[in-house]
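Page 47, continued from p. 46.
Same chain as before, 201 aa.
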Amino acid sequence: MDREYKALNAHSLKSGASFVRPTQTLPDRVTLEEPALSVMTDLRSVSVVTVRAKTPMDKAHAKMRRYGVRTLLVLDESDKVLGLLTTTDILGEKPMRFLQHMGGTHADILVRDIMTPQRELEVLQFQDVANAKAGHILATLKAAGRQHAMVVEERENFPQAIRGIFSATQIARQLGVQIQITEIARTFAEIEAALGDVNFS
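Result:
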């Protein structure tokens, strides 16, 4: 059976056109009993925002604001993960400690100077996360004293790959808890107080 295929009409690309980015829609409201995956930013569905280690800190911070994120993956020239940079790294004590130790000005601080390096990053296994609840993730973050956790996939004959990211702030928002991002211990105290009869240990 012969079929005829007609060419589609072509149009001009308009000035100022942007492009579609992958988006993941996490549920607005969750409970601690929801699957952990319902509070994980899944990098199969969302493009992670990255930065190079030699980028000035102020430029990295501007990039966070532009994309509306609080975490950047730090990559080397071969796109291998060198570390993680968070707004806490930028707005906390790390820049001042660096300047006291090395001298210079704020403009001299690079991402590599204040990021958490790869060797210090702990990760969760995707298969463990797939069987966990949101409450388990908050307990894990609290026990580690961290606002963020990365999730990795491991397949035979493949290097570890980061599959997802958890954020205590994001989870709190999905739980309907308003928190002030000041210090990690206070974040979890506020979540526990807002949810009542809950203790993350």
